[in-house]
Amino acid sequence: MEAVLSHPRPRRQSFVREWVLTVDHKKIGVMYGVTAIFFFLLGGLFALLVRTDLLVPQGVFDAQSYNEFFTMHATIMIFLVIIPLLTGAFGNYLIPLHIGARDMAFPRMNALSYWLYLASGVIMLCSMAGGMPDAGWTAYPPYSVSAKGSGIDFWIFSVHLAGLSSILGAINFLVTIHKMRAPGMSFNRMTLFTWSIWVTAWMQLFGTPALAGAITTLLSDRHWSTVFYNASAGGDPMLYQHLFWFYSHPAVYIMILPAFGIISEVLPVFSRKPIFGYHAIAYSSVAIGFLGFFVWAHHMFVAGMQMSEGIPFMISSLVIAVPTSVKIFNWLATMWRGSVEYSVPMMYASLGFIGSFIIGGFSGVLVAAVPLDMDLHDTYFVVAHIHYVLFGGSVMTIMAGLHFWFPKVTGRMYNKTLGHVSFWFYFVGTQLTFFPMHFLGLAGMPRRYATYPPQYMFWNDVATIGSYVLGLGTLLIVANLFWAAKYGVKVGPNPWGAQTLEWQVSSPPPEHNFDEIPTVTDNPYRPYDPPQPEPEANPTWA
Amino acid sequence: MFSSWLPVELTQMAHNVDSFFYIMLGVVAFFFVLVEALLITFLIRYRRTRRNPTGAAVHGNTKLEVVWMLVPAAILIGLGAFCVPYVYALQKPPAQDVTIRVTGHEWYWDFEYPNGAHARTLEVPAGTPVLFDITSADVIHGFYIPDVRLQQDALPGRITQFWINIKPDMVGHVFDVPCDQFCGAGHSQMHATGRVVTQAEFQQWVSSLKK
Ligand code: HEM
Ligand SMILES: [Cu+2]
Ligand SMILES: [Cu+2]
User: Binning pLDDT at 50, 70 and 90, where does residue A173 land?
Assistant: First the structure.
């Protein structure tokens, strides 16, 4: 006993103390990240089941299972992977560091957000026991009211908790960003990632209640014989769609704005140049956040609206492409006259993200035109669009971010060669999987089809092969990162030579982030000094 | 495999949609090539070398940024304005038409012809406007005819519409009528077969149907 006391060792915290009871924003961020990566693998597995079914025209699985697979795939990817990863994991870990704060404004509420998210995921998993939900991630009534089994009830409960977690997280981010910035950090000195999370949080705050209303009334129609969506009793199924898209269109920007923020952090570091047009990039996020609430009915051009009612929504949708294209040009200009390093995060951010995301932006412009959407709505063309923006956009960026901040979070570096190899799997896999879907849609193949006419087989098979390439790439990435978290080479505080605040503290950062709160005097993207001449290896005076 | 690029155009309207599609495709393809070319050029031209160890100290250029905001804005709004007349033309059904009532069921299409007779195949006369009154008996379905580039959802308790006027030289053409709004286990099997006939054949077919 005495011997122990006289040789004090740093006390190892128990797992429960270190993780389960933690309110540290960095630990919570890591928990969000690890949980979401687990769900990413699960959602990916469902995607591979969907693609495998479509290898042959008559389908490999029965139609009911197929419907359950694509419902689980989309729900998991949207509510349990992309949103939690971008806001919960990256947002939580980075925002306090980026603004020079010691933690989030409400650390315990932050932990609550995570546990609600985990509960939401567990409930979604439970639905697999009693008949999975099968109504798509959109769950339109009356189908979702009449669907049998408890799957949809689990789905509603799960989405509710995810929404609550999101609202609490959003409040936390807003208060933190407004109240806890380091001295000298005006809004115009915040990182662009912070700007993007700020806008995203406002969107979550205003949008999510509409979703909650939609699915609560859905639950009530299912079980308490209300008739919100029962047309024969005077209800209206279109009401659900309006409520749903009033949330879910903003949600697609919730899934891309933080990604834009990540790109704006990665590009300057690996171009060794300040970001080009800081204000244009920051304010275009605000414009997207605002306009994002005025385009929802572009999902409903053929859903029973008067055709000309689509016109204002068409115009607002085309206008919202403007701030997005501003960002693309500013990012390109950031690389222009830079000194571009082909690091793994840079490959994902440049070729991976910019190279793929723009395809989704362009197909978005095509489906936003009412006459074209009258043809292309609910076909594979829309499936191609959403995957170029969400996979080529959000997921590519998540990969950029994971490879960028990994050394900060773990203090170790992954295997860079393997990182590059898995990037190419990702890039090629994305194009192979999703580009052919444009052809299928233009040829008239509807989405959510368990079986299809034989003339669509060729491009379906190309897509399925591509999805296996993506699956392999995902396993390589996850293996690389998890291995390196334990065995990777140790790195210092700033392995990339970046300038934002998180790189000025140790890797991983100390528990309270900053020994002394920094005073900020400038915008975070300063010109990079020309490197100093290398000191001689063996100075003679030594 | 490229035969499946775009389906046949049964109507003049379908032809207009395709022309419009090619115009928009041209515009976006131009910007696509521009952005990809700049991206690849910058990646190669400005890669890090010993002689290019750091980037230029450029923070932005307001004039340039205004240009690349206003040019896409003008093009996009122009494209939108270009669509407007088409939407109004489509919305207004012609005065004299043959009306076919379409009802979606789990999982088949039912067609009610002008004399009140029902069938599960869709026969449409060429050379005259045909109006579809679309509804559903149960959940939402999607009444889609790829060969005319049009669709409307079929909702319970509501009638949606679109009209077509098939080119006379299309008589004899057989087309697919899939359901494209998810409606359950039979969704992907919910196809009707459509056939273009002459107006005389249409009258004959309708009167041959049992009421
Ligand atoms: C250039 C800007 C964009 C425009 C003009 C645009 C336009 C559209 C339109 C009109 C639709 C409806 C198509 C239909 O169902 O017929 C749509 C669907 C969709 N978009 Fe976009 N979009 C854009 C960017 C994005 C971004 C950035 C994301 C997400 C990161 C996104 C995600 C989605 C999703 C998930 C759907 C499909 C929802 C569903 O029906 O399941 N879009 N988009
Ligand atoms: Cu939308
Ligand atoms: Cu259907």
Answer: very high
